[in-house]
Sequence to fold (421 residues):
Amino acid sequence: MKSNQVITAIDIGTTKICVIIAVTTPENTLEVKGIGTTKSEGLSNGIVIDIVKASKSISDAIDEAEIMADRTAKNIFVGIAGEHVKSQNTLGRISLTSASEPCEITQDHIDNVINNAKNNIKIQQGNERLDIIHAIPQYYDIDGQTGIMNPLNMSGFNLSAYVHIVMADINTIRNITKCVELCNYKVRDIFLEPIASSFAVLNEVEKKLGAIIIDIGGGTTDIAVFYKDSIRFSGVLPMGGTNVTQDLSIGLHAAPQNAEEIKITVGNCIASTIPQDKLIEVEGIAGRESKQKKLRYISEIIEARMREILEGTYQMLNDHHNLKMITAGLTLTGGASLLKNCEFLAEEIYNMSTKIGYPYLDRLSGPTERLANPKFATSVGILYHAHSLISDRNDLISPVKYKDPFISIFKRLIANFKEYI
Ligand SMILES: Nc1ncnc2c1ncn2[C@@H]1O[C@H](COP(=O)(O)OP(=O)(O)OP(=O)(O)O)[C@@H](O)[C@H]1O
Ligand SMILES: [Mg+2]
Fold:
């Protein structure tokens, strides 16, 4: 691809908006030029609840990134999450030829078998108001021979594709797109947040051996499972670090900003590690008298909610996936993964080797120090994902008709994207 092309990643999180403006280099890497972060308003559990407030937050973050980058944000890629997201593995099947000789598989055949899988999903009851945002092939079968990763130029009579389909509520997608449009920008594509985050915190070996990523944000906890180089499961739990703060605020009778500070400075996910006699002073609400509270009690509140979140993800995964196949282990990321001992709590629940996922920044040049925090895994991942998509775009783009209801936003936007690069 051409160098000096601008790519902009926008992570519209429940607690913060992060915008990264980067440019492609002659070596086909990315150089970060500008970063903007603002507190997000008008969002709850990954969905827009006030379009005007949300777009003002996005606009402020874009402004900050543009000033630092000294260039305009272009080619904008956005993350999406929330309870409305539904993912499903499905099968697409086509016949390659009716002749007695096998047929050589072309890119059109591959596109057709994936479209067949998408159509099978779209006609299922309950999916009418969902739009497909990802259709990711896992592997293919040719005439019963299974586990084929790339069938291009192989020969056969019948082709099947196992495809991971991610769908999101049409209105939610439109509201997020609208927020960006109100800032006078156009969204090029939308990615599911855990898929984006996986580009920033999982490496190829982990994805091959089997890995789980759990991004614990403010309002959502996003999950994805990878095995044999492809995604096997994705899901979203509408709960995150904000719920921990709310619990503390209620349990300690403290203002939310004090509860947040207590959580970050002295919070702990494993209450039994805190001595019974340790106390801290908690400021009363709006001038009320301060009170001494047991640190152990504070950690019990935190542990209860973090257990609920992590056990919720475990339940979700265990219902869909054989966790014994996860050889590499679990990676926790997102801001709330920074809660002390979070990885040990997860390790206990999952009985699996766990690490905290800081975004890999080695593929980025420029002023990236600020991004070395799990809360930026999604924004860095959006950038990597967008870059790989654009680099491979000739393989990915197939001719599409704009009015076809089965077409994902992804295909429509990428088709238009050609004009800009
Ligand atoms: N050092 C820290 N220790 C504990 N918690 C932290 C720390 N830093 C951030 N958090 C928590 O992380 C959460 C925000 O994480 P993040 O920025 O990943 O969320 P988001 O992307 O805004 O939200 P979402 O992905 O749910 O839409 C908040 O609840 C915040 O309190
Ligand atoms: Mg997030």
The first strand starts at residue 6 and ends at 12. Residues 204-357 form a domain with the Nucleotidyltransferase; domain 5 fold (CATH 3.30.420.40).
